[in-house]
Write a structure and sequence with these properties.
Elements (H helix, E strand, L loop, with lengths): L14 H7 L6 E2 L11 H10 L15 H15 L9 E4 L2 H12 L5 E6 L3 H9 L3 E6 L1 E3 L2 E3 L2 H7 L4 E7 L11 H14 L2 E5 L25 E6 L12 E4 L2 H15 L4 H12 L3 H20 L4 E3 L6 E5 L4 H6 L2 E2 L1 E2 L6 H4 L1 E5 L5 H4 L2 H4 L2
């Protein structure tokens, strides 16, 4: 059977293979993004209450309930100071990664280049390929023990074939957080080269060490050049609900919305109701989870002195530079993910530890397991 050219270079994750190899309960599950952090209080209650409602068994509206779209608009306005029209500039999707693919399919032609950082989430890299685009990587650098955007490398990655930058902050899997000066350089590149920014905002609330939130929409001209892919899966831990969104200029959101409709029809109705309730509800639980994630990060670093670990500034994973394969870690009761395919040369030198599903007390056992 014919194989589509777009599948060239598209490879599977190492995550599921590592998870399948886990035997026994005494293995630290650091290989995937499941979480033991508590759900928002409204998530389960509203889902249960709405199960029997007729509107929870409806196809409509394909692009998401207006109430949820308005809640997303308010959520973005509170964080970024920009108000999106819920009717024309927001579409609800089946998670944030569907939003990314919808945007790419609506904007990328075969051969168009999209610049990402190295390392970066393999799911973003391969969605660029599935859309017919060519991923180009700008390597991150380490400054003061943390990952940092190399602005010169980012500028050098832009060519006459570049149409977009695809960035996360905090970035997965590195935990790199872009500074206000970094976003200013992104804005300069987008303006000078007539690019658009696909901003994966899934992790943006999960920043550590009291960092001041900042983002691309602070900079002049970027509201017209930015398309946001958002999600309930990270800051709100609602992984299984599969609710995300697209927010941006009306023309591209309209096109991406049609991609969404013809790909998935609509996000699950009852999940959309829960998402709206959570976005409208108290937000203190987000800060509580950030504090717990930061404590877990610190526990891993303290347990492994002498290991080449780059401290993440946010998110819920970190990278360890090592030539040891994932199998070596698993033999010692640590399930970790190889980073082959999660960027280029920088990613390939690392394995990933995810700290969203293991408490501090178990993470402290790393020192004995990996002695």
């Amino acid at each position: 059977m014919k194989r589509a050219a777009r599948m060239d270079g598209v490879a599977g994750f190492g995550i599921d293979q590592v998870a399948d190899a886990v035997v026994g309960a005494d293995v630290l599950r650091l290989e995937n993004l499941d979480t033991d952090l508590p759900l928002p209080p409204e998530a389960v209650a509203v889902t249960r209450a709405e199960l029997a409602s007729p509107v929870s068994n409806s196809w409509l509206p394909f692009t998401g309930d207006l109430g949820l779209r308005a809640a997303v608009s308010d959520h973005i306005a509170a964080r970024h100071g920009h108000v999106y029209d819920p009717r024309r500039e927001i579409v609800i999707t089946c998670g944030g990664c569907e939003a990314v693919l919808d945007i790419l399919l609506a904007t990328i032609d075969p051969g168009d280049e999209v610049v990402l950082t190295d390392p970066i989430y393999a799911g973003l890299v391969n969605r660029v390929r599935l859309a017919g685009g060519v991923p180009v990587f700008a390597p991150l650098v380490v400054r003061d023990g943390e990952w940092s955007l190399d602005r010169d490398a980012l500028a050098a990655a832009v060519s006459e074939r570049t149409v977009a930058l695809l960035l996360m902050s905090p970035s997965m899997p590195s935990g790199c957080v872009l500074s206000r000066q970094d976003w200013a350089e992104v804005a300069r590149l987008c303006t000078e080269h007539d690019l658009f920014l696909l901003y994966d905002a899934a992790m943006e609330a999960l920043v550590f060490d009291g960092r001041e939130p900042c983002g691309p929409l602070e900079h002049a001209g970027m509201a017209e050049r930015t398309v946001i892919a958002g999600s309930m899966s990270k800051a709100y831990r609602m992984i299984g609900w599969r609710v995300g969104w697209i927010a941006g200029p009306a023309p591209v959101v309209s096109d991406a919305g049609w991609v969404h409709v013809y790909n998935t029809t609509g996000a699950v109705s009852v999940a959309r109701r829960a998402a709206e309730a959570v976005l409208r509800g108290p937000q203190a639980h987000v800060a509580e989870c950030v504090a717990e994630l930061q404590a877990r990060r610190d526990a891993i670093i303290a347990a492994l002195p002498g290991w080449r670990i780059v401290r993440p500034a946010g998110g819920w994973s970190l990278l360890v530079e090592t030539d040891r394969p994932a199998e070596w870690f698993l033999e010692r009761g640590v399930a970790a993910t190889p980073m082959t395919g999660w960027g280029a040369d920088v990613a390939a030198r690392h394995v990933r530890f995810v700290f969203s599903a293991e408490p501090v007390e178990r993470l402290e056992s790393l020192s004995a397991r990996l002695a």
